[in-house]
Amino acid sequence: MAEIPVVMELPGIASRIDAALQQFQQRQADQAFLTRCLALIGQVEEWKYSTGPLYDLPPYQMQLMGFSGGKPLKKPFADLTAARSGGAYASGFVGGRHVLTVDPAENLKLSPQVTQYDHEGDLTRATITRQPDLAVPPLAKPASLVGLGETAWLDERRRLHVGVGGRGAFAVYLYRYDDAQRPRHVHLFSKGHVAQSDYELHYDDAGNLVRVTDVLGNPVWPKR
User: Fold this and answer.
1) Domain-wise residue ranges, the chain
2) Are the CB atoms for 90 and 46 separated by under 8 Å?
3) Measured between alpha carbons, how far is 36 from 47 in angstroms, rounded to an integer?
4) pLDDT digits (tens, 9 = 90+) for 56-82
5) What tens digit of pLDDT does each residue of 1-51 get?
6) Dist. CA 172–CA 95, nearest whole Å
7) Contact at 8 Å (CB) between 26 and 172?
8) 128, 146 contact by CB (below 8 A)
9) Are 31 and 152 in contact (CB under 8 A)?
C-alpha cells in the first residue's frame, strides 16, 4: 500500500487555515459581501436541479459522510421557491461554470442556505450564507455567514480544499486523482478530531462513483 499523506503536515497548511479563519471573522459583518449572491441569481443562465449537492465542492462530500450525493432531476421548476419547496437543490451556471447553489428547505419561512462560487483560474472560493431576503415572506434581518471554503490544485494529481466556519471550526480535504482524472483517495482532517480519515473511491466502467471505503476496506457508502 502506498504511503498515506498526512494532511496537517502539508507545506503551508497551517497558514492557509489561519488566513481563512481570519477572513471569516472579517467578513461576518460585511453585508455587501454576504449578499452578492442575490444579484448573481439574476445572472444565472442555466439552472440544474438535483436531490443532493451534486455540483458543490469539495467533491463527493456527502458520500464521504455515508449519505447519498443525490441524483439529477429532469423536472423543471418555475422559480427558486418552487424548487426549495419541492426538495430540490438549485444549482446555477454562468458560461458553463457552477456559480451558486440554493439548498432546499422544509420551511420556506426560514432563511435558505446559499453557496456562491468565485472562480479564479484553478482556484475556487466558496461563500456559504443564510439569505433572509429569499425566505417566504422575506425576513427583515441581515444575511449571515455560515462558512468559507477554498479549493485549489496543488499539482496535476492533488487537489486541496480548506473550509472554515464559526468558533474556529475547520476541515481540510486532500484529494488524490488517478490517471482518468477522478478522485481516487481522499484524506480528511477536521477540528475536534485526533486523527485524519482516509478514504478510497471506487468507480464503474462508465466512471460513476459506486462506493466509498475506508483505509481498511470497510464500506462508508453505501452502508451495508
Assistant:
1) 7-221
2) no
3) 18
4) 999 999 999 999 999 999 999 999 999
5) 568 999 999 999 999 999 999 999 999 999 999 999 999 999 999 999 999
6) 29
7) no
8) yes
9) no
Q: How many CB atoms lie within 10 A of CB 118?
A: 14
Pairing relation of β-strands 183-190 and 170-177? antiparallel
Q: Which three cell numbers stand for residue 9?
A: 503536515
SS (H, E, C) the chain: CCCCCCHHHCCCHHHHHHHHHHHHHHHCCCHHHHCHHHHHHCCCCEEEEECCCCCCCCCCHHHHCCCCCCCEECCCCCCHHHHHHCCCEEEEEECCEEEEEECCCCCCCCCCEEEEEEEECCEEEEEEEECHHHCCCCCCCCCEEEEEEEEEECCCCEEEEEEEEHHHCEEEEEEEECCCCCEEEEEEEECCCCCCEEEEEEECCCCCEEEEEECCCCEEECCC
pTM over 0.90: yes
Residue 10, phi-psi category: left (phi > 0), alpha (psi -120 to 50), beta (remainder): beta
State the Rg of the chain over Cα: 18
Grid cell 432546499 is found at 104
